[in-house]
Amino acid sequence: MTSGPSQTTASGERSRRFAGDPHGRFWWHHLDGTDYVPAIYQVLTDDEWQLMDDWYAATLAADSIGEINVPAMSMLQGLITGGGLSRIVQLGGYYGYSGLLMGFWLRHMGQGGQLISIDVDPAATAFSQEWIDRAGLSETVLLMLSDSAAEQALVDTVATFSGRMPQLILLDSSHQYAHTLRELDLWVPAMEPQTLMLLHDTSTYACSWDQNGKGGVQKALDDWLPRRKDVSYMNLNRRVGEPDVSADLTYRDGCGLGILQKL
């Protein structure tokens, strides 16, 4: 691929074919009323969509599946493109799905925006870097191999690269209670007023992702928020306890989404 996008053309079928694919990663496309190409894919050029399609095939072949979903990415797209955001940090990039999409959106916006994506897994980071390079996004998406709860030096490095702290942070990393507490303690104090943090997997159902059985992201926030007077917070789908109710939800993601704003 070249470093710049080709002319955007009609989206055609694109992701609509996922409705006929029984793999669980395409659960959103199996819901009633989703027989369309969501905006997160509509805005891509044909070349960009082809790369995403190839990425799906490669991650399936490598058994490296675990990307964030269409509802959460749609929320991110609205915030990034609707707000003209140019400084974004992702805690937990995994195998690159969200990094690629956010990179494409930022490139289309043409404002010189940058995403910094941090992940602790060397194999996942190397895989993601290969695809970021193939997409011509190396100047838009910076991958960092690090524990997202490591130390203050990590936050200082991010601020140095961006010139300022990010306007938006996506927290979608380990889903473990103790690690999430450390991430909150590290990143939220450094956030500028009015900036946002989105936290994925905040529902009761998603508490099961915590391998230590301590309640994951939801419980970490429950214990952390009472001692913070400088944030506002909303948890979408907090009470959802089963993964198969997404068709009955307004925000159609049974894993939940936390929206935190620094005051």
Question: Can you describe what's shown?
Answer:
This protein is of the alpha/beta class. It is built from 8 helices and 7 strands; from the N terminus they run H-H-H-E-H-E-H-E-H-E-H-E-H-E-E. The chain has helices at 39-42, 46-61, 70-83, 97-109, 122-134, 152-162, 177-187, 216-224, and strands at 87-91, 114-119, 141-145, 168-171, 196-200, 231-236, 257-262. Helix 5 (122-134) links the parallel strand 2 (114-119) and strand 3. The protein is globular and about 50 Å long.
- Could you state the order of secondary-structure elements as H and E? HHHEHEHEHEHEHEE
The largest sheet, given as strand count, sense and whether it forms a barrel, is: 7 strands, mixed
Q: How many DSSP E strands?
A: 7
Which blocks of ≥5 consecutive residues have pLDDT under 50? 1-10
Categorize the overall geometry. Answer: globular
- Give the termini distance in whole angstroms: 42 Å
Multimeric organization: single chain
Percentage of residues in strands: 5-15%
Give me the secondary-structure category: alpha/beta
Rg calculated over all Cα atoms: 18 Å
Mean pLDDT: 94
